[in-house]
Amino acid sequence: MNSPLNGEPITRRKSLSLAGERTGTAMTKWTDTFKPAAFGLRTQDAPLPMTEPLPGNRDSTVPSMGEPAQGKILVVDDEPAVAELLVRVLTAQGHTCLCASNGETAVKLLEREDFDLILADVMMPGMSGIDLLMITRTLFPAVAVVIVTGIHDRETAFSALELGAYDWVAKPFERDKILITVAAALDRRRITLLTTEYRSALEEQTRDIVGQLAEREEEIVLRLIAAVGSRDHETEAHCRRVGVSSAVIARYLGWNTERQDLMRRAAPLHDVGKIAIPDDILFTQRSLTQDEFEVVKTHARIGAKLLEGSNVPVVRMAREIALSHHERWDGSGYPEGLHGDEIPESARIVAVADVFDSLTHDRSHRPAFTEPEALNVMLVVSRIWDPNVFDTFLRALPEIRQIYDRIDDRERGSVALQRTGAV
Ligand SMILES: [Fe+2]
Ligand SMILES: [Fe+2]
Known about the structure:
By secondary structure, this protein is α/β, with parallel strands linked by helices.
């Protein structure tokens, strides 16, 4: 039942001679005890390189399922005789091997070349096999590591497994144990890499689809803004500034990136209902009569009506904002006279951003206020806003100022279809 190396301690190079293994009794015993084909391995004669790759050396790749479990293996052992033995056994099964006599050299080889598997002795001067295992797990996670320990050192072996080693083999070696362990580790690595590759591809595909959907949503939103702006380019720039400044306030309030982006795209539609307000009221140079103001106030409900019934998140948020951006914290707003937290937070944010932008830019009936003038006005009436949102707006003001420099009232037409990139 014994193979030529079965149970034989490896202490001297001379004792490792495999001269008889391919002929006569020794070979017969070997084939009797181990059937390479049963493990998807093939037996072949091969030279025994110690530091140079074998002829036909290949780059390490992820083989497809069904390929024989052959790999490019880095044997790390400070005893040349042991390393030579391992290389001899592994190359005979079609594996490609390189050797390193210590961990430091192994790391250099790993930086230079791709390997499928490392067979590392634990006890080495300098960097131990466990150190090498940890470095490999961190820097070369795609490489499987099999640890070689003394027969009585099971504790180290279990520690190595906990640290991410694929498996371990004990000295003195049994040839079949080495080959089975290596084949199993290569198979496991292959499945792991294929799974990772598949998952990455799936994630990338999902990201693409989500990206495409977001782009389409964005285009719809931008076309709606353009529709509003087609009547008044001043309104168009205002809508876009309110979008990006509201997203900044949302970020300061701790909204996640996804919701900030929703806000950036939804807030510009806050006045979409104005599309239904007659020009002679919307663009009048004089003060509005009470009746005219009542007409203007309808833009909140009209905007919500235009946007209702959608399952698209950006449209849903846009509807919420369009309906409630004139509600006031103290209940004196319209269209429903909501109080405090009854007003959706998105609309509470836009309410502040909307007024600040309106005050600091020219309107058909009045010139722009300076920023200090606008802030003075806002401080006087600040009870109409959520105090937390208003304070957050003041903190975010330096950033909002920068956005204003980038979106100008003089922008016209197709500019509305470009992303601002300000958030
Ligand atoms: Fe409005
Ligand atoms: Fe507005």
